[in-house]
Amino acid sequence: MFNPGHFGKFSGLIVNIESETKRIQDFVDKGNYHAAYNIALSGLNACRRANDQAGTDLFIDIIRGVVDSLAKEFGSQPASR
Question: Which of 13, 20, 29, 78 is deepest in the core (most CB within 10 A)?
Answer without folding.
Answer: 20
